Amino acid sequence: MGFDAFLGNAKTVMTLRRKLLEGRFPHALIFSGPEGIGKHTCAVMVAKALNCLRAQPGDFCDECSSCRKINSDAHADVRTISVEDDATQVKIAQIRDALKILNLQPLEGRNKVFILDPADSLNAEAANALLKGLEEPPENTFFILITVNVYELLLTVRSRCQIYNFVPLTLAEMRQHGITDELLLRCSRGSIGRAQSLDMGRLKNERQMVLNLLQTALGADENKFQELLGLSAELGRAKQDFENRMEILAVLIADTLYIKEGIPEKLVNIDLEGTLEKLAERATVDQLIRMAEFLRLIESSLKSNVNRQMLTDVLVLTGSNIMHGLS
To answer: Is residue 185 in a domain?
Structure first.
């Protein structure tokens, strides 16, 4: 057991191992990439490699007392800082607690490791406090910041860290995790975490709702605008599901484009190929691309606490206008 057990992102892991082996491991790193692709797992592996009692430099045994304690979150020198149960952000008090022990010698291992996950949940005060630790960390102290989007972090934080970008796993790598359901594999889009938590029954129900809207938008004339707005109201009703539904819509549009361009092997929704072929007949590549671009604009607006129902109405009506050459 060691880094060889980590599936995916082989080049990134190889670089990290080489730096560990050469004894020039950076004191502050950012692991950036989609959720559920192994960033946190890799950070814990790094913490074990920095403190393993048996393995050669650049690896870990996963069996010694140090590795076992890290696995059970009981190692005194390896600390994960995350959002507390009663909060929505990492607080400045949590960072200050970490900084208090920054200049102390490790209690039981060779190195102190702080894993911040998710680092993009640091509030402004916490992020600024963290800068003090990142500027001149002690020789035996390491920070690993985990984020979905590195650009959500302060520029001053990013500039003090080495950035490692993690990418989704390939279908072949996903299969090595023992996932055999082809539709589940593709709907997980390279995320093991997503594959393990995805409720396919619920996803199919949500997907059908979004598909109904897309089919109506692609074929709507003036007589169907009321039907279109009705579907829009259903789509925008549930706050907790709204972003999910926008994501499903983006994938359906992308799948339709893949069919249009003659590359069906890239489809996510392989069980809807026939339906998507009919959708592809109704739209040009340019129209689908414009719809996808407008959807990205809608998704970026979600960060501004705008009215979801208004966004959905604008989305479906603009999509329909694009189809009819009115926009």
So the answer is: no
